[in-house]
Design brief:
By secondary structure, this protein is α+β, with helices and mostly antiparallel strands. Helix content is 38%, strand content 25%. It has a four-stranded antiparallel β-sheet, sandwiched between helices. It has a four-stranded antiparallel β-sheet with strand order 6-7-5-8. The radius of gyration is 16 Å and the shape is globular.
């Protein structure tokens, strides 16, 4: 017997950047609905999807990667969080005291929890006024001067964090939680 469809937050990595790997969100919704996903919603043009599925989040990511590659003709890395997991990301908010501009406050969603050594290295970084915090499979980073040219962003790329996941700014993270809470699945 199939499980009950639950809200899933699907984050596509590296689409619609600099004219590469383009997919319109209306086309993406149509593709996902055609694959049998329910209550598909997208946010912005950067691969943010909320949908309902009975497939467990970890299995859903792999399934969607295969389906999207077949439907789009190119590989897409997919990271999935449940509604409850995303709610914990928002509730955790370890940099709330300093991160006042949601467009400069990023969450990097990783597939797996980073190694303890890497977490210690990240927490030891001294890039004030920028800050970083790691909680579970998320890396929170505050870039008060913006992300472009940010010393912290360069260090995150150098450690492999940026390449291991996908970034969303705080405004997008909270909007995705709102979308997950709308309607019923």
């Amino acid at each position: 017997m199939p499980g009950v469809a639950q809200r899933r937050i699907v984050l596509l990595r590296g689409i619609n950047l600099a004219g590469r790997r383009r997919i319109g969100m209306a086309d993406l919704r149509k593709l996902l609905e055609g694959l049998g996903y329910e209550d598909v919603r997208t946010h912005l043009q950067s691969g943010n999807v909320v949908l309902a599925s009975s497939v467990a989040a970890d299995r859903l990511a792999k399934k969607l990667e295969r389906e999207l590659e077949a439907g789009l003709g190119f590989e897409v890395e997919v990271i999935v969080r449940t509604r409850a997991e995303l709610a914990r990301v928002v509730a955790q908010n370890p940099l709330a005291a300093v991160a006042k501009d949601p467009s400069r406050y990023l969450v990097t969603f990783l597939r797996a929890k980073p190694a303890a050594k890497l977490v210690r290295e990240l927490h030891a970084l001294d890039v004030a006024p920028e800050q970083v915090a790691v909680s579970g499979r998320e890396v929170y980073s505050w870039h008060p001067g913006g992300f472009q040219g940010s010393p912290l962003a360069k260090l995150l790329a150098k450690t492999g964090v940026s390449g291991a996941g996908t970034n969303r700014n705080w405004r997008t993270v909270t909007k995705l939680l709102e979308l997950a809470d709308e309607g019923s699945a």
